[in-house]
Hints:
Strand order of the largest sheet: 5-6-4-3-7-8
Oligomer: single chain
Order of helices and strands: EEEHHEHEHEHHHEEH
Strand content: 15-25%
Low-confidence stretches: none
Structural class: alpha/beta
Largest sheet: 6 strands, parallel
Shape: globular
Bound molecules: farnesyl diphosphate
Distance between the termini: 10 Å
Number of strands: 8
Number of helices: 8
Amino acid sequence: MIQAHDKPLPQHLAFIMDGNGRWAQDRGLSRSAGHRAGAERLRDVCYWVLDYGICHMSVYAFSTENWRRSTQEVNGLMRLIPDFFHRYAAEMRDQGARIHFVGDLDQLPAATQKIIGQIQANPPETHKLDLYICLNYGGRREIVRAVQKALRSPDPLALADQLDEDSFRNFLYQPQMPDPDLIVRTAGEQRLSNFWLWQAAYAELYFSPVYWPDFGQADLAQALDAYSLRQRRYGGEKSDNTHP
Ligand code: FPP
């Protein structure tokens, strides 16, 4: 638990950045323009989160299901993602963000894989925030991949006897990442949509009606205030915001 601003803050704050399309539609713009505005907001939110002293932040940027969108929208996102990191990765690094990419990355376009490789090969010497960008990520896919990795171990039968919830974590994409304490979804829908299915077991969920590109500092403060009032029991009797 991090104590800042006199309130318990999440150690890991996750975002489902929804509502880019509706934000654009309200303005007579293309969905791609909505995603561009959403990307700019991601940069802002990252800096606000850094200011709070929160150490882990994750965002659902492209799901394994998002390939079903129109070719135009998918291509727009696939151009936007490397563009965004070409523009901002160095600045984010200087501000103290260590960026990780999570998902089936080898299915992404070459330009995206290239910048991902460059960013991950040059982590900052010191960092204040671990920022996890989920790209071609799906919670069910992550669990299936984890089972496949476990079955490929040298002695899968011995592993079957030893495997428990803690050791299973080693087969997930980011074994070291703490589970999200708070998942914020913008734009009013109230579902996880295949995000962090394993890791969300005890996450607090917060739903904001605001479209992602409009999600401002006051909206973030409201989400964090709501979190600070939640009673976290992890199935037991504990009724505070400390981690299990
Ligand atoms: C959901 O809104 C949003 C997405 C599928 C993409 C999220 C991507 C970004 C915010 C920007 C790109 C990310 C990076 C890392 C640069 P929606 O399109 O489903 O909105 P709608 O429900 O209103 O249609």
